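Hi U.,

Before I forget, here's the chain from the pilot set. I'm dumping it here mostly so it's searchable later in email.
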Amino acid sequence: MKNWQTWLTDKYIWLMLLIFPLWTGFRGYEALTVSKFAFFAAATGLWLAALAVSAVIARPTLPVSRPCHPAAAAFMLAACLSALFSPYGTRVLLGASRYDGLLTLLLYGGIMIGVSAFGRPRRAYVYALAVSATICCMIAFLQLLGGNPLGLFPGDYTYYDSGYKYSGAFLGTMGNTNVLAAFFCLCIPLFTGLGVLSRDRRDRLLLIPAALCLLILIFSGVSSGILAVGLCALLLPPYLVFLRSGRGRPAHICCAACASAAAGALAAIFFWPGTEGTMYELSQFLHGHIDDSFGSSRILIWRETLGVIAERPLLGGGPDTLTLRTDLDFSRYVTETGLTLKTHVDNAHNEYLNYLVNIGAAGFAAYLSVIAVSLSSWLRKRRGTLIPALGCGLVCYWIQSFFGLGLCLVVPLVWIFMGLVNTPSEE
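Structure:
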């Protein structure tokens, strides 16, 4: 029966890595979030139900306990307690804004428990994700040329109407460019890491989708994604060289080169002469000057979120309820179109703060424990190539998520990655 559970998990992972990133539903960007949520919830719910049925049939065959299981269970328990004591009633079940309600959080925990118990990292998974990422990049490239493949934009809108006819920016099959950047932060280090670590020359082909993802990321201009990939380019090479060559001169040279590059980058940012843009904001941050407008007003959003957190610190307001607890809005009059674009803040624009404000300190601590267990498992498994490469993708995502939205459009893939790095072995 365990082989049956492994087979089910294998097919689920295939579905989520190959089809889910490309699924846009039938109404384009207008209903992308609900379309992806429905796909994710249906696929994950059916898979977990099938695992439960198989466990009942094969009674005493239970999943082997992993260190990540208590952490995932604590996360799920904290989400349930937050929802139970929330003043917003049934709105916490699906969420009041972004479909990140209790159901979604419970499915995340179920993914980690199921994948870590019955999944095995397979090279084929990476190639499945590479296919979906490549197709996503091709669609984004056509959009950057002014096209509208798949009719994702409504009417005659294009990518370049962002900020003029509608708020936000949308690109590829992941929707919001911040979410697309989070997806690329998973993909680029994974493809690069496996391409570098593998002794099979065919795996060098993964450097092609890695380059495509990086190119689209740069053209999208999402600073958080570019920053995360840049930091990983400084932090991860010594780790990859160590795994491939072991302790010795190559590893020492790589460490010295990355340290020198990091020092040079910090110096360049510190003495940046510009007066606007991301580099200017980073330079001002290093000088101790922080303005609410920095990071596309993220500093202001974070200040507002911290104030809301203080109201219900232990259990939060309930899963996905920030939109009900803040009246922070942004508006801008566009002279070219005569339109006033308005946006209500319903997300902390920092995944960690988002957990803290929605499910409280208990849920936030549980989520950190999930990360800590996954990080520990990744660093301990130095044999093979797949788990080290998966961990590289997770590190990049964890950095980007400090500025990210943490939505169910990409987060299910993160929990699959974390489940896989907590498996006992790879193929």
